Amino acid sequence: MEFFDKLGKKASEAYKVTADKTGKLAKEAKLRMKMGELKSEISDIYEDIGKVVYENHVREEKQDISNELEERCTKIDCLSDEIESYLKECLELKDKRKCPKCYVEIDKDVKFCPECGAKQDVDETVKEVEVLDKQQESDNKENHIENDKEDTKQEKTNLERTVEVESDVDENHNETVEHLEVEDE
Fold first, then answer.
1. Residue 185 clears pLDDT 80, i.e. is over it
2. Concatenated DSSP letters for 17-82?
3. Closest C-alpha among 175, 181, 182 to residue 65
4. For residue 32, is pLDDT > 60?
5. How many C-beta neighbours within 10 Å does residue 96 have?
6. Cβ-based neighbour number of residue 65 at 10 Å
């Protein structure tokens, strides 16, 4: 009977570990997909910037396009910040960080980068945090649900910012087009 109890406990532990790793992999895949979408959006903005600059170059009367370019650059900054936050989340899921010298992914607890040999700022608090993490694992599951709700709110906030920037850009573009049409007449 004791054998079956131990076997049941081992199977249960193995299931928990597998489920946790699967959840982390799924979340990382979702984050990487979001990062890809944001990078594609940034690429589109770069293309738009190039078109605006070239169109201004071709015009006989040069226009001040600095505001329009500034808005697009600000949008790129916002998207880049989002990508950076997603990248940090991915590293946290894998219990890794980036070497500040060569930017290679390394384990959190290494003292020297295996790639470039740079000394890492690792102190004893990392080990203490790992112990606390094990004690607070059940709390983290509850917090995870709350964090998902906050992530959804943050996504809405980021979407609202993007819509706001895009609407400003569209309004400025329409004003520029109307101005050009008046000049052509």
1. no
2. HHHHHHHHHHHHHHHHHHHHHHHHHHHHHHHHHHHHHHHHHHSSS----HHHHHHHHHHHHHHHHH
3. 175
4. yes
5. 14
6. 17
Residue at token pair 């979408």: 37
Query: How many other C-beta atoms lie within 10 A of the C-beta of residue 170?
Result: 10
**pTM of the complete model beyond 0.85:** no
Q: Could you tell me what percent of the chain has a pLDDT over 70?
A: 65
94: nearest Cα among 37, 35, 29, 42: 29
The DSSP annotation for 101-168 comes to TT--EEETT-SB-TTT-PBP---THHHHHHHHHHHTHHHHHHHHHHHHHHHHHHHHHHHHHHHHHHHH
pLDDT category, 100, cuts 50, 70, 90? confident
d(CA 109, CA 95): 9
Tokens describing residue 115: 């790639």
With b meaning 16 or more CB within 10 Å and e meaning fewer, what string describes 9-29? eeeeeeeeeeeeeeeeeeebe
Distance (Å, whole) CA 35 – CA 79: 9
Task: List Cβ neighbours of 161 (8 Å cut-off, separation of 6 or more).
Answer: 78
Residue 27 corresponds to which tokens in the numbers above?
């979340």
Q: Which residues, at least 6 apart from 149, have a Cβ–Cβ distance to it below 8 Å?
A: none
